[in-house]
Amino acid sequence: MFENKTEITNKIIVEFSKTIEMFDLTPAEARLFTYLYLEEKPLTLDEMSEALGKSKTAMSNSIRNLANLNLVTRVWKRGVRKDLYKANTQLFKIFVNSYINKWIDATNFQKMSLAEIHKNVKQINKPIMSKEELATINNYLEELIEFHNEIESLFTDMKQD
Amino acid sequence: MFENKTEITNKIIVEFSKTIEMFDLTPAEARLFTYLYLEEKPLTLDEMSEALGKSKTAMSNSIRNLANLNLVTRVWKRGVRKDLYKANTQLFKIFVNSYINKWIDATNFQKMSLAEIHKNVKQINKPIMSKEELATINNYLEELIEFHNEIESLFTDMKQD
DNA sequence: AAGTTTGTACAGTTTAAACTGTACGTATAA
DNA sequence: TTATACGTACAGTTTAAACTGTACAAACTT
């Protein structure tokens, strides 16, 4: 089956990174996270680059995004100049939190955009369309905004659990 | 503010399609769904193509994916040769159901892949790594599989609500 | 003070996804 | 039976995302 440890960890990286791509990570970010997770000791950008066959610049961009999502932590070690990073290990908590936050933020932002359109539509007094058309558009906007409310509630409830 | 109805519906399409892209739709699929949603009568591929400025082939591919996700319904009308499609209108139900199903399916699939790796690792009897290394890998696999179980439960619970 | 290391901004290249146009098989209309 | 319409497979093109390599500023080492 498996001939060595590297083969096993590579297989795990391939499979687990597929899972966490679903949390809106790029393939490179997903593989980097998985590699850090399986590698107990913190890694430098150069080590990440060498391990994953990507440029240092690509690793810098990926690790920054992972850090912004609170999926990895920068580690300070005395006498070491290079930045060190390690994966956060409470997988369910960190991924679901990050994901729920992203959904709530984005949903709220979109709801506000639609609410703005709705406000502007209500303030129309020029005869640019019939009353029926205006009522229809208002109905659609209300439905769309209600949809956002429901999505927001769904993810807010998930956060409590 | 708005000068005509088309301007309003275009603005709504832009904003709402951003929301539903989050359900793993491509920008073209999201715009198509939103257009169908706002357009009460069912549309043909040619009408979709003309309305959204994309080729008929692109519309064929997009509408097929939306139908596969149960987000739109093909409508049969006597004496009409062209396929007709309309958006399903219970937004929360159709999007959340589609999304939860996708998560449960994908998570289950990945869990099985990792379980297969785990099974193979357990069957290792050749000395390809130390006992400590083997124990560590087994621990990681258990954690990753447990993570999948938790994600699956999370989305299964969402389905009940 | 000078040299080296480090991470990242930036510009250009590559890759993968999305697209278009054509060809084709099937179904319908004439 | 023949012609036309229709949706989609397929091949090639375009676009957007991801990448690499270089340059640079800041920090550290010598």
From TrEMBL, chains A, B:
Coiled coil: none annotated. GO terms for molecular function: DNA binding. Keywords: DNA-binding, Transcription, Transcription regulation. Residues 23-74 form the HTH marR-type domain. InterPro entries: ArsR-like_HTH (IPR011991), HTH-GbsR_regulator (IPR052362), HTH_MarR-typ (IPR000835), MJ1563 (IPR026282), WH-like_DNA-bd_sf (IPR036388), WH_DNA-bd_sf (IPR036390). Belongs to the GbsR family. This is HTH-type transcriptional regulator.
